[in-house]
Structures are given as structure tokens and as C-alpha cells.
Predict the structure.
Amino acid sequence: MNKPTKWLVVVPLMISILGLSACGGASGGDTGEVDKKPQGEKELVSRSAPVPEWADQAVMYEVNVRQYTKEGTFRAFAEHLPRLKELGVDILWLMPIHPISEVKRNGSLGSYYAVRDYKAVNPEFGTEEDFRALMKEAHDLGFKVVLDWVANHTGWDHEWLGNPGWYTTDEAGNVVQPPGTNWSDVADLNFDNSEMRAAMLDAMEYWVEEFDVDGYRCDYAGGVPADFWEEARMSLEQLKPVYMLAEDDQQIKLLSYAFNANYGWQFYNLMNSIAKGQGQNHEEQVLRYGERLTTGYPSGTYPLHFTSNHDENSWTGTEYERLGEAVKPMAVLTFTMPGMPLIYSGQEAGLNKRLQFFEKDEIVWDDLVLQDFYRELIGLKHEHPALWNGKAGGTFERLESEREPVLAFARKKEGSTVIVVMNLSEEAIQGKIQTEPLAGAYSSFPDGAPVSLGAELTVELEPWEYLIYTQAE
């Protein structure tokens, strides 16, 4: 959400459930034990959320408008759209675009997640017409755009505070901040109040109807009743097909209808642990995680995988702080494991500083050092249905390796096969991979060189080196 103290509250849950986190907090150093199940998993139902066809092979890109350019405006960001089109990303997730409350504000600019008005744009970013122009240009270029929606709470000068019963109160009748947190800059909404729920739903519909937004990334989704999200999804689908992402991995029931994806915090934590050499059997942990995605998620749903986002960058550290020499292989895993990959603003430029959350802190775009790296990964995902999202994607199959820490797995979808072999250590290693069921002619990624695989693949891998082979009929 907006500050690191949330993490201090949820650490017990992170350790006891899945290595969890929430918007505004670090994700901790948990190794991501893969046998533990999120709350509500035994309550899975057969129905599933509608899936817009355009999400099948999509890659998401998070936009931090404030820090993206010197101006920090919609117009200035729009100048980057052609470059992002060349990069190949499909869905633009805009961090909250609404006016920020001034009462109890953190820092000079405040948290994006302390919303003052759900039906207005932050004047720092521009006008409604500027936003409308951005939406049109993005759509004309083929992007889909989802907005960051903060439903659990508002800032302290939101007009709704004048409505009795719309907020959570203590025994003395005083409006409180979200329970269990010290988010002092926001006031907790009361979802037992039908009028407030109707107003929230109306605001969500407003941006779809008036600006043609394509869905929402929902902040602290687990802090809002699942039945509200399901009602919202049904209402939004009457307007257009939308995509819904939940910032949550505790309540799997949110994926039974309301949301298409949740956060892959468990895998994020596991990647951090692997890079730091913490724990054991890393390759087995990754394989078990991949296998469990096929049984632990409602049909067609999946996690969003990332090596960074606005919270992790600001509060936990840059990917270079956390992953070191493993930055590239961990990014590869976010593109090849089942799920949708995310790129955060500046990662393609090798962003190696923690962006301030409440102040201006511009991203430097002088050297797009990883633009080609991510462009190639995006092309890999787009071109191979085995790597697509949800039901559109392929199976996940482990390949047996004779020794640690060689990770090997395959993704398969009809005529599309992708094989990934990776050294999950900082030491050079040798190993043999059993590939007999997949023997045949392949192309290596990214150079496209022909490779013939037999019953067994012998590899010599440098620290953190990875090999990717693709086959398409």
C-alpha cells in the first residue's frame, strides 16, 4: 500500500502461510515453503473468472507516473509509449491516478494509496483530458490499461467521511485507520454499509464507462470482502470484458470468480532466498511450486510473477540488492514458470536505486541496458503457446537432473515445447538431464541456433547460467 510498516504486521502470516506480503511492505526473507496452502483453498468452487482473450499471452508493465519522467505527468509518460510498444509489453498497470489526501499526508507528495476522490485525477499528473488522451493513444497502439484501485480505505479528507456509517469506527465513534496496521494516513472503509459499497462500485464503473479502462489491479484485495469483488466483477463485465488482479495471496477464494490473478509472493520470496543461498533443495522447491500451481489455483487463474514492483523496490530493495548476479536468471523464471510476468518501471533501464515513495525521485533513462533482454523474453512468451497464461498456456513438467542445483523443466502445449535448464548457484557445475520423452530438434534461445536433444542432455553451466530450448511444429 504505502509504507513498510504493514510488513511488520503480517510477518506471522508470511511465515505460516506462503511467504506473504501486502502492498506497502517488504515481503520478508521466507523461503516460500511450497506445501503450505493459502486460506480458503479447500473451498475452491468450479466456476472461474471470465478471461479476456487479450490476456492469454500478455505481459504486464507497472507504470509509476510520478517517477517516470521529470514532469511526472500523463503527457510526459505518453512519449514513452512507442518505446514500450517496441519492448512488447501488453498491459499497462498505472499506479493510482487519483488526487492524494493532504490531511495526515506522508512526506511532501503523499502516498498514491491515500485517495481523496475516486472520480478525479491527480492534478500533479495532469487533467482528465490528459488522461483521456493517454488512454486513446495507448489503445491506438494496442495496449490494454488497468488502474490501481484502492478500495479498503481512503485518505482523511475524502468527502465520504461526511457520510455516517461509511467508515470503521472505534467504541467512541471515531473513524480508525485500517485495523492491524499503522497506516496513519488512511481511514478504513466499512463494507457492511450498503450505500458505501454502491458508491464504490459506481466509481469503479465510472472509469470503465467514461475512459474505457480495461480492468483493475486491486490494492490490499484481501482487506475487502470477496462478495464485493464478485459483485464488482459481474457489474464491470456488463460494460466490457475486464482483467482483474488481486494484490493478495492469502485468500484463494478471491480467484473463484472475481479475479484472474493474484500476487506470486511465494515465488518472489523463493527467488530472493535462492539468490542469497538461503535454504536447501532450491531446484526441488521451484519444481514443486510449478507443479502445485496446476492443482492449487482455480481453473484458468494464476499468479503474477515479478522480481520487483513499486513496494519491493522502495521498501525491500532493488533487484540488484536482493538478487545480485541472479537478476537475469530470476527474471527468466518469471517468464517461463506458469503465470503472468511483470516488469516494473525502470527495470529495462537497470534501475538500481530505491525510489522514494512520498517524494519526487525520477527514473534515469540514459541507458536502456536491459531493454533488449526483456524484449527477447517477451517475444519468447508471445511466440510459444506453452508459455501463455492460464488455460491458454501449457503444462509444467519436471525433468530429472542427477545433481543439485541444476533446475530443469519443460512447458508443453500441443505443438509448442519450451525447455529450461538453469544453474541455481554461484558455482560452476556439470550435470545430466533426462530428456528422452522430449528428444528431437530444437532451437536455442535467444540466438535460434539448431540443437538436437537425445535421451540425455549433458550440461556444463557457469554460475547462474541458463539454457532455453524451443520447439514449434
User: Anything to note?
Assistant: The chain is about 30% helix and 20% strand. The longest strand covers residues 406-413. Residues 122 and 349 are 26 Å apart (CA to CA).
